[in-house]
Amino acid sequence: MADGVEASGGVNGRPVTRAEATSQPLDARERRQLDVIRRFGTVGALLLALGSLGAGAAPVYSPVWGLPVFSLFPRMNTVSLAIAFAGVFMIVLGWLGLGRLSMPGRARMVSLPQMARTLVMWTAPLVLTVPMFSKDVYSYLAQSEIAARGLDPYTVGPAEALGNADILTKNVPTMWRETPSPYGPLFLVIGRGITWITGDHVVAGVAFHRLLELFGFAMIVWALPRLARRFGINPVSALWLGAANPLVLFHLVVGVHNEALAIGLMLVGIELGLRRMPRCGPGGPYPPWQPGELLWYGIGATVITLGAVVKIPAALALGFLGVMIARRWGGRWKHLLLTAGALLVIFLAVVAVTSIGSGLGFGWTATLNTASTIKSWMAPMTALGFGAGGLGILLGLGNHIDAAITVSRMVGTLLGPLLAAKLLLDSFRWRLRPMIGLGAALGAVLVFGATVQPWYLLWAAIPLASAAGNTRFRMAATVISAAFAVALPPTGNSFDFRTYLLPYAYVGAAVVVVVALFVVRKHVPGRPPRITDTTFLSSP
User: Fold this and answer.
1) Can you spell out the DSSP letters for 484-526?
2) Whole-structure pTM over 0.85, yes or no?
3) What pLDDT, on a 0 to 100 scale, did the predictor assign at position 14?
4) d(C-alpha 282, C-alpha 3), whole Å
5) Phi, psi (5° rounding) for residue 281?
6) For the region Disordered, what residue ranges are annotated (predicted)?
7) What are the residues whose beta carbons fall under 8 Å from the beta carbon of 429, sequence distance 6 or more?
C-alpha cells in the first residue's frame, strides 16, 4: 500500500523508487572520492582490529600473549587504546563522507552494489578483532555451557552452575556471574550447539558466536533495501544509515551482540510477511486476495516470533505487521481484532514449540528483566531516580535513592508500553506509517526501560532507516550515531582508577586522524548537487 510513490518500470524485475529513477551514477571525480572514502574506512577498520589486541575485551587467558610482536600490544595499553580510537574516528569519518555520496535527493549518488562493496571492505577486518565495547559474548558462552550440561540457565548463574574456577566463568564480568540468562530459548539452543562444537575453548566459541551474529547482520543487509523500496525510501540511503552505521559495525560485528540475530529475524519476518501484499492507498481500494497471501503472513509472523525468542523486543513487530494486514483486509476494527487473534495464536504456538522443544521450558519469561539489576545513568528513568534521590539528600530528607529509582522505573515500565500502544493505534488510523511507528515504539519501550545500552538504539534506528526519509530524522540519527560511536571506550571495561589513560589515547588518536585527513583533504565530498524530487514516505 504505497500511495503510488514508486516509479513505473523496474530494475531486474523489481520496482524502483522515484529517487532511484531520478538519480544518476557518480561521475569520475565522485567515484575517486568514493574510492578514497572506502580506503579511509578500511584503514580505520584495520587499525581498530590491531588496537583490539591490547584494548579489546580479551579473555582472561588471552592467546595474544604468546604471539611474537602481537604480544606487545597488551603491554602497551595507552598505545593500543590510541590505535583503536584512531580506527573508530576514521570509520565514523568515512561513514559521514559516504553519507555525502548517498544522500536522498542527490542528482548523482552511490549505487547499491557500490554501497555493498564498501560495506564488505569495512566489515572484513572487523571480523578478526578481539571482542570490543562489551564482554557479553563471554556470558553467552557460559550460559550455553550451563544449558549443554543439562542445567537450567534461567535459575542459576555461571558461578553456581560452573564454579568460579571454570574458565568460562572467569571471563564473565563479576556483576553477571550470579545472574541467570535473560535470553530466549532459541538463542541458547544455538549456543548449546556451539558449545558442543567448541567445548570450553573460549577463542573458538567467540569465533562461532561471531559467525552467528554475522548471519544476523547479513539478514539486516538483505532486508533493509527491500523494505526501503517497499516504503518508498531510497535503498542506498537505508543501507547507509541502517547497516553501515558505526554503531552497527562496532556493537553487532565487533561487539558480537545477539541483537544482530534478533533484529535480523525481525526485519526478514516483516519483509516475508509483506511479500505478497498488494499496494493500495490509505483509504483503499483493497484488491482481491492473491494466491499464497495468507501463507506469507504466517511465515512472516513465525520468523518475527523466532526473533522474539532470541530477544523479546522483536515481538513488537508483530503488532505493526498486524496493523498492515488489518488495513489490507479493510481497515476496520473487526479486521484488526481478527488479525491480532491470528497473530497471537502463531506467537504462542512458536513460543511453546521453541520453549518445550528446547528442553529449557518457559523460565526465560521470568528473567527478562535481569539487566535491571544494573543502575546505569544512561537509562533516563534510572538517571531520574538518581537525581530525585540526590535532591532529597541535599534537602536533608535522607538517602532514598533506591526508592526513587524504583518509583521512576515503575513509571518508565508503564510509560514505554503506553507510548507503543499509542503509536500502534496511530499507525492503524494512518496518522503514522506502521514501520515508522515500529521504530519509534521500540525506541520508547527501550529508552524508558530500566537499563539502556548504546546498542539498544539500533532496535529503533534500523527499522526507521527503512521507512523514514525525513531529512531532519536522518540528520538527528547521524549525529546521535556518530556521538555514541566515538564516546564509548572500546575495552568493554570501566576506567576506574585509570581514567588518565583516556586523554592520552584520545590525543594520540586525534593526531593520527588529523594527519590522515590532511592526506585525503582533496577528496572529501562537498555539498552534493540536488534534484527537486527528494524523499518519499509511504507504507504498505
Assistant:
1) HHHHS-TTSS--TT-TTHHHHHHHHHHHHHHHHHHHTGGG---
2) yes
3) 53
4) 7
5) -80, 175
6) 1-25
7) none
